[in-house]
Design goal:
With about 110 residues, the chain is an alpha+beta fold. About 45% of the residues lie in helices and about 35% in strands. It has 2 helices and 4 strands. Strand 3 and strand 4 form a beta hairpin. The longest helix has about 30 residues. The N and C termini lie far apart (about 40 Å). The mean pLDDT is about 85.
């Protein structure tokens, strides 16, 4: 998995990098098909913003969140991402089960 963390108008310190990595590891352990992750942390006046794009096989999942505190924005982003990954994973497993149901029996 390729992880890219960038900052716009904010310096990505090792503490922030570690925090983002631990939050994303919690989400990614649920799903094995992640090819790359791009995280953008930015500051716009009084608003701290965290965005993530998760590249999985067949789909890109994008999540953004903003808050007055950067760590709170990262927390909200990881929670949203976890919900979307669970939803995508459930959709994929349901799709695989339906394709198995509709196959004709082998002779």
């Amino acid at each position: 998995m390729n992880l890219n963390i960038t900052g716009h108008h904010v310096e990505v310190t090792p503490a922030i990098r570690d925090y983002v990595t631990t939050k994303l590891d919690r989400v990614i352990r649920h799903f094995d098909n992640v090819t790359s992750v791009g995280v953008i942390l930015s500051v716009e006046k009084l608003k701290q913003k965290a965005e993530v794009t998760l590249h999985v096989r067949g789909k890109d999942i994008f999540v953004e969140s903003d808050d007055t505190d950067l760590y709170a924005a990262i927390d909200a982003m990881s929670d949203k991402l976890e919900r979307q990954v669970q939803k995508y994973k459930q959709k994929m497993t349901e799709h695989n089960h339906e394709s198995l149901k509709h196959q004709p029996p082998e002779a």
